[in-house]
Design a protein that fits this description.
- Helices cover 8% and strands 42% of the residues.
- A 5-stranded antiparallel beta sheet has the order 1-2-25-24-23, with no helix packed on it. A 4-stranded antiparallel beta sheet has the order 3-4-5-6, with no helix packed on it.
- The protein is mainly beta.
- The protein has helices spanning 9-30, 158-161; strands spanning 40-42, 55-64, 78-83, 89-93, 98-102, 109-111, 122-128, 131-136, 141-146, 151-157, 169-174, 180-184, 189-193, 199-204, 216-221, 227-231, 236-240, 246-251, 266-268, 274-278, 283-287, 293-297, 310-315, 320-325, 330-338.
- The radius of gyration is 24 Å and the shape is globular.
- The protein is built from 2 helices and 25 strands.
- It starts with 8 loop residues before the first helix and ends with a strand.
- It has a single domain, classed as 6 Propeller (Neuraminidase).
């Protein structure tokens, strides 16, 4: 018998498997092809992955143009948009009084029911669980539909929240506790509703000073119950605490590094990053969770992916970003790249 030691069978097999596997893994890694530079905008640090919380780029994915062959044709005046948790994309056409949805599995478009009574002018939409809530500017109400598109009932009569006032609700949001905020350009204020959807307080008023608005055009709740208002006329964002107290503003005509021109619809991702549609500058602005500007996207895309007048944004469950573009009569979809 020899005096050398024999390797046990299992470690020997592991060594052989590793020797065979390493070249294969190296070959697979070498085949990874990055997305074309012409289809995305990179900003900040170099791209290093898609699993972090910092937004570093938007990658153009698709455009749904005003095509006569599409079931949503014609798109006449696009307004608010929203993603459901299952990936259903919902968009409003306030001139035609239509709400359209796209099935995430088949990518086919379908139409939601229209409330009875006429004069339906949907300008914003939110999904709350299995409920689809649509803000009707013409009727001064928030309607409840389900994800299949079926109409249920009227949830809030905005006109009765402030009787005697001329209301022009432009956007709204609902938080995890069931509270609601409604931006009203008629009175240049924001209405904060409690969990019973009764008026809790009003904030704002007309003017250029802090805690004043000149056409509040977009609004979104943050995870801690605070909310951000996009003030189009004052070219800024306004942050309010959970109870409606003004905290600070971002941007404005006196901000030397202001990114905002005429901010509109706003939405946030699960990391707290804020996305702002700005039809005044034809850009989509990205802010981090501390409301610090990160970068603006729009001019570096190919013509197919370039926004002209983005009026609203919606963050999807799988890192999509939908943008309704009024000038193009198109729905643009991007992929959010994280680091």
């Amino acid at each position: 018998m020899g005096t050398g030691r024999r390797l046990p069978l299992r470690p020997l097999l592991r060594l052989i498997a590793c020797a065979l596997l390493i070249p294969c893994v190296a070959g697979l890694t070498a085949c990874v092809v990055p997305a074309p530079e012409s289809s995305r905008l990179a900003a900040g640090p170099a791209l290093a992955g898609r699993h972090g919380s910092q937004v570093v780029a938007l990658e153009f994915v698709a455009a749904y143009e005003n095509d006569a062959s599409e079931p949503y044709y014609p798109l006449e005046r696009l307004a608010g948009c929203e993603y459901a948790p299952d990936g259903t994309l919902i968009v409003c056409d306030d001139l035609r009084g239509k709400v359209h949805g796209q099935d995430p599995r088949t990518l086919r478009w379908f139409e939601f029911d229209t409330p009875y009574g006429g004069g339906f002018q949907p300008v914003d939409v939110r999904v709350d669980g299995f409920r689809v809530l649509v803000l009707d500017q013409g009727g001064g109400a928030i309607h409840h539909l389900d994800l299949s598109g079926a109409y249920r009932d009227e949830l809030v009569d905005v006109r009765q929240l402030d009787p005697g006032a001329v209301v022009q609700p432009t956007s709204f949001d609902i938080d995890r506790d069931g509270r609601m905020v409604i931006a009203d350009a008629g009175q240049q204020e924001v209405l904060l509703l409690d969990t019973f959807l009764s008026l809790h307080t009003r904030v704002g008023g007309p003017g250029p000073l802090d805690d004043q608005f000149q056409f509040p055009a977009g609004i979104v709740f943050r995870d801690d119950g605070s909310f951000v208002v996009a003030d189009r006329g004052n070219s800024r964002l306004a942050l309010y605490g959970r109870n409606g107290f003004f905290e600070r503003s971002v941007g404005g005509s006196f901000d030397p590094v202001a990114m905002l021109s005429a901010p509109g619809g706003v939405d946030q991702d699960r990391h707290g990053n804020l996305f702002v549609a700005d039809p005044g500058s034809s850009l989509i602005h990205i802010f981090d969770a501390a409301l610090r500007p990160v970068f603006s996207a729009g001019r570096e895309f190919t013509p197919e992916g370039t926004p002209l007048a983005p009026v609203d944004v919606a963050v999807g469950p799988d890192g999509q970003l939908a943008v309704t573009d009024r000038a193009r009569s198109a729905i643009l979809v991007y992929r959010i790249i994280y680091q």
